[in-house]
Amino acid sequence: MTGRDFFIFSLIMAMANGIMSPLVLAVAVLNPIWFPGLVLPATEGVVIYLSSLIVSTATLLLAGIPAALFEQFTNREETDKTAGIIWFIGTLVLSLPTLLAA
């Protein structure tokens, strides 16, 4: 398995976290702050969908921080399998509330 495979696993885990996370409702409640409703109407379905997208994107971004720090501190030129594993573990840790609630 390569680093790319672990990144794909991280994407799948982040999508599952975005769909089933308890944080989706918290983000949906804050929709007047992040969703002005200029292009799409602020219907319940649109707000929940975009809230899910925000949670999954935030999961992926936050999980990538330890992998990026690892690459920076070890002076790696390219992303390798170890960084992919670190990214996947970070995604898994951030998805624990979702996995435990399911």
List keywords for this structure.
77% helix, single chain, mainly alpha
Note the run of SSEs as H and E: HHHHHH
- The count of β-strands is 0
Shape: elongated
Low-confidence stretches: none
State the end-to-end distance: 28 Å
Q: Give average pLDDT, whole number.
A: 90
User: How many domains comprise the coordinates?
Assistant: 1
Backbone CA Rg: 16 Å
User: How many individual helices?
Assistant: 6
Classify the secondary structure makeup into a structural class. Answer: mainly alpha
Kindly estimate the percentage of residues that lie in beta strands according to DSSP.
under 5%
How much helix is in the residues?
over 70%
Summarize the biggest pleated sheet: none
Can you put this structure into words, describing what you see?
Helices cover 77% and strands 0% of the residues. By secondary structure, the chain is mainly alpha-helical. The protein has one domain. α1 runs parallel beside α5 (81-94). The longest helix has 30 residues, at 44-73. The model has no long low-confidence stretch (mean pLDDT 90).
